[in-house]
Design a protein that fits this description.
This protein is α+β, with helices and mostly antiparallel strands. The chain has 2 domains: 113 residues, Hepatocyte Growth Factor (3-Layer(bba) Sandwich), CATH 3.50.4; 128 residues, Mannose-Binding Protein A, subunit A (Mannose-Binding Protein A, Chain A). 17% of the residues lie in helices and 35% in strands. A hairpin with a 2-residue loop joins strand 2 and strand 3. Pfam families: PAN_1 (PF00024).
């Protein structure tokens, strides 16, 4: 486990402005003791490389291990940092593999670290009584575009599962002046069906429809996507552009 501090041999000249903004640094005879102010990293011995690969944020060559971790801390999206000791490359990812996933055994010269941080450090807000976070994006995209954006941030469109969750979310939306703005949330209906499902195929049981909704099943352009507006659910075509709400876990 790599937790709250790093101790490594390195030349103090390697400590640049980036590191200085993230760590408290003490230089002594060429060594650096770096104490992280807010986050910690957990070393992962087994990593599902296939799961990580689609979510590469950046690859940087010729860096030290501590600089690699600093780059991760400096990124709003970074959750996992991978460091190759042979060629000194650093690769950052926007997701973490599941803690219960045994994954592939990592060779000794490659080290993976999972960042542990608060929702706020990723620009998200905590979903009360969960280890999940959400973020409201007012930029209008299609359902496909919104889903891809959430995936790139390590999550998915928000899954609203209870009245308490909806109430808390609506308070924030109202505060932002977006209560009468439509926002994509997770949920879809297969053509010809009346059942609504989340994108992981779980059948939805909490469906607080607005009056007269859902009403677009038999239109030429079926309304088979789910949007939130005026505090309740509406169906809408996936091709329309709306803002959206992402949800992601914090490990």
């Amino acid at each position: 486990m790599f937790r709250s501090f790093v101790y490594m041999k390195m030349d103090c000249r390697e400590v640049n402005a980036l590191l200085s903004s993230i760590f408290f640094l003490l230089c002594n005879t060429g060594s650096v003791f770096a104490t992280d102010r807010s986050s910690s990293f957990h070393r992962r011995e087994n990593v599902n490389l296939t799961q990580l690969q689609p979510f590469v944020l950046s690859t940087t060559a010729t860096v030290t291990e501590i600089v690699c971790l600093a780059h991760c801390l400096d990124s709003v999206l970074c959750v996992t940092a991978g460091y190759n000791g042979n060629d000194k490359t650093c690769r950052l990812y926007s997701v973490s593999t599941s803690p219960n996933d045994s994954g592939d055994t990592v060779t000794t010269h490659i080290k993976f670290y999972r960042r542990k941080a608060t929702c706020q450090e990723f620009g998200y807000t905590t979903i009360v009584n969960t280890s999940e976070c959400y973020k409201i994006h007012p930029t209008a995209l299609t359902k496909t575009g919104a889903s891809k954006e959430c995936q790139q941030e390590g999550g998915h469109l928000i899954r609203i599962t209870s009245s308490n969750m909806l109430t808390n979310l609506n308070v924030v939306i109202d505060y932002l002046g977006l209560l009468r703005t439509y926002l994509y949330i997770d949920g879809y209906r297969r053509q010809g069906e009346t059942i609504w499902r989340f994108s992981d195929e779980t059948i939805m049981t909490f469906l607080p429809w607005n009056i007269g909704e859902p009403n677009g099943m038999h239109l030429p352009n079926p309304e088979d996507a789910l949007i939130l507006g005026n505090g309740s659910f509406h169906d809408a075509p996936q091709s329309h552009v709306f803002g959206f709400i992402c949800q992601r876990p914090i490990y």
